[in-house]
């Protein structure tokens, strides 16, 4: 069910909803079929891949995961793996010690508590070690087509610059976006903002001269520069 209130406890105004709708309409035209670029065959693989994708590119993760999943094809296999072996397997994704520990522990939790089956409930997903709201939301939206909004650095940057939220905390940004958009739109929201952040609204050098949000008067960022 859609949230009715923003993170400050107020209901969005018609103008705020109208702007949010206009922004999303342009993103849908730009990215008609937005979905994760991570390769996966089942929800557990997507869960692991999403954890590995932190601070690296999806392409880099996709180069690592085929070998990872061949060697440890199930959650139980990975949960029982030698940590040093997993560190070696995921080394090129960066932060390999932390990531290896996370995917081994979440796989162990998944096996012991859920029989190796990825739950379809956000509150259950975030009880797995190494799984936060962003990762859980990606899995729900992408693997199960369950309405969810994942807030990563791209989503935070783009929505803040455009002026859809004044918050910086990911959970509060998620609340604001869920209040601005109808539930049926949630699934595609994150991936479109993420891709737009990569293609146009770059962290250091935003391409404002080719941005439809700037051109159509939908972005607050130029006023702050």
Any overview of this molecule?
It is a single chain. Helix 2 (43-52) runs antiparallel to helix 8 (133-143), helix 5 packs across helix 6 (96-114) and helix 9 packs across helix 11. The chain has 225 residues and is an all-alpha fold. It has helices at 14-30, 43-52, 58-71, 75-79, 83-89, 96-114, 122-125, 133-143, 153-162, 170-180, 186-199, 212-215, 221-224. 58% of the residues lie in helices and 0% in strands.
Provide a compact summary of the structure:
The protein is mostly helical and 225 residues long. It has 13 helices and no strands.
Structural class: mainly alpha
Taking the sheet with the most strands, its summary is: none
Mean of residue pLDDT?
A: 95
The H-and-E topology, N to C, reads as: HHHHHHHHHHHHH
- Measured by DSSP, the beta-strand proportion falls in under 5%
- The tally of helices reads 13
- Gyration radius from CA atoms, angstroms: 18 Å
What are the segments in which pLDDT stays under 50 over at least 5 consecutive residues? none
Helix content: 55-70%
Question: What are the key terms here?
Answer:
mainly alpha; 225 residues
Topology:
Layout: H1 14-30, H2 43-52, H3 58-71, H4 75-79, H5 83-89, H6 96-114, H7 122-125, H8 133-143, H9 153-162, H10 170-180, H11 186-199, H12 212-215, H13 221-224
């Amino acid at each position: 069910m859609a949230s009715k209130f923003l993170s400050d406890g107020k209901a969005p105004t018609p103008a705020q909803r109208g702007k949010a709708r206009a922004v999303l309409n342009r993103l849908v035209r730009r990215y008609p079929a937005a979905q994760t670029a991570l390769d996966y065959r089942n929800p557990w693989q997507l869960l692991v891949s999403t954890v590995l994708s932190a601070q690296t590119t999806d392409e880099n993760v996709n180069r690592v995961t085929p070998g990872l999943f061949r060697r440890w094809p199930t959650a139980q296999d990975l949960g029982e793996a030698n940590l040093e072996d997993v560190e070696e397997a995921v080394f090129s994704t960066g932060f390999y010690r932390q990531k290896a520990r996370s995917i081994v522990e979440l796989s162990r939790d998944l096996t012991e508590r859920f029989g190796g089956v990825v739950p379809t409930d956000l509150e259950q997903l975030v009880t797995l070690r190494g799984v936060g709201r962003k990762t859980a939301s990606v899995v729900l939206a992408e693997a199960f087509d369950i309405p969810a909004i994942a807030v990563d650095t791209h989503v935070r940057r783009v929505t803040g610059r455009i002026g859809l939220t004044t918050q910086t905390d990911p959970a509060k940004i998620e609340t604001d976006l869920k209040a601005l958009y109808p539930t049926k739109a949630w699934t595609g929201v994150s991936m479109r903002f993420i891709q737009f952040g990569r293609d146009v609204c770059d962290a250091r050098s935003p391409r404002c001269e080719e941005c439809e949000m700037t051109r159509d008067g939908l972005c607050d960022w130029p006023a702050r520069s």
